[in-house]
Amino acid sequence: MKQKLFVGVVVALLLMLAVLPAAAQDEFVFGLVLVGPENDRGWSQAHYEAGQYIESAIPGARMVFFPSLNPADAPEVTLEDVVGEMVAEGAQVIFTTSDAFEEDTNGVAAVFPETTFINISGDDALTGTAPDNVGNLMGQMEWGKIIAGCAAGLSTETGNIGYLGPLINGETRRLASSAYLGARYCYENYRDLNPEDLTFTITWIGFWFNIPGVTLDPTEETNTFFDNGADVVMSGIDTTEGIVVAGQRAAEGEAVFAVPYDFTGACDEAPEICLGVPYFHWGPVYTKVVQQVIDGTWAPAWDWVGPDWSDINNPDTSTIGFLPGAGLSEEASASLTDFIALLTSYATNPLVPESFALWTGPLAKQDGTVLAESGQLVDPLDVWYLDQLLQGMVGASE
């Protein structure tokens, strides 16, 4: 009994300390539940800064947030615990910002039917399994990864690219595969090299970031890529180990590069060897949701939001962007600019059916199953639910 009471006190203290109000105001309150810390220079920081964007865009908006809700950092705390504290703070909209929260979001939403929930990266509103107060939101990072893969393909001299993957699911398979398609295309079409000679290897660490004793160590895995001949490492995890290691090895004289992920400032870890960063900018779409709730016009939906192709780096309109890095050569930078223009023409052409560029046949999955015949476009939902990596990629599909 004493042990249970102690655990209860610890949980209560964690909630009191971690559900942090951004300001003590009598205003419209919204909540963010983060899977990692708000200063991780990756996924969670991008969401936290979106909360700050809402506060600056909507008069009277006030954020409360809970950082690092995951089995390693808060093993005794449940999503329902966190949401209960946020609702007590007055939160009317709560963003649960990870697929790790998808299943629990539905259950918690049933407990708090007057609160609007937006789960990031899930699809329960699409499949019809979500309660009426739950919507889903995801950015079309496939475009960002295609561009990032191109940057890697333009820059590798060994023809060997490593991809640091998190856990394995439909999202991570399709993003890694998009990077692979971008790398192959630019390796062949801008450098006139044989794409069959390009090695693209993915290692999955087991979660979105390092959990000692549970996941593979992303620092060790990045070093292994370089030790095995890769000269570019791309990241698909939430944190910055890939570019940190690349920066360290470059400082020792190695000709290596990195492509980080998620966050606009990720290149700052080692700018001289950064080829660029594909990033999420959640602020505008989050603000739209909050304003809809304020106006009483919000309705549950599954929203998969692409870039603003008039300016993919517009901070007030584009959910997906790509910031080129100082590690790009002058020639590679020019080629990448041209490639982005090609993507823009594809994505904005009214005669092209809804699809992702480069997701065009002939394409096959790792086991040889045909995904698209020659000239056939892959349906976006088939990309969303991709159940294997693409043929030609090295690494596990499940």
What's the helix and strand layout?
Blueprint: H1 2-18, E1 20-21, E2 28-33, H2 43-57, E3 61-66, H3 79-88, E4 91-96, H4 102-111, E5 116-120, H5 124-127, E6 134-139, H6 141-155, E7 160-165, H7 170-189, E8 199-204, H8 218-227, E9 232-235, H9 241-251, E10 257-259, E11 276-280, H10 283-295, E12 302-305, E13 320-324, H11 330-348, E14 363-364, E15 370-372, H12 380-384
Parallel strand pairs: 2-3, 2-4, 4-5, 5-6, 6-12, 7-8, 7-9, 9-10
Antiparallel strand pairs: 1-3, 11-13, 14-15
Helix pairs in contact: 2-10, 6-7, 6-11, 8-9
Helix content: 25-40%
Distance between the termini: 42 Å
The proportion of strand residues reads 15-25%
Mean pLDDT: 94
User: Shape, please?
Assistant: globular
Enumerate how many helices there are, as a single number: 12
Number of domains: 2
Low-confidence stretches: 1-14, 20-25
Q: Structural class from helices and strands? A: alpha/beta
CATH secondary-structure class of the largest domain: Alpha Beta
Radius of gyration (CA) equals 21 Å
CATH topology of the largest domain: Rossmann fold
Q: At CATH's second level, what is the architecture of the largest domain?
A: 3-Layer(aba) Sandwich
- Sheet bearing the most strands, described? 7 strands, mixed
- Can you write the helix and strand succession as a string? HEEHEHEHEHEHEHEHEHEEHEEHEEH
Strand arrangement, largest sheet?
1-3-2-4-5-6-12
Number of strands: 15
CATH superfamily of the largest domain: Response regulator
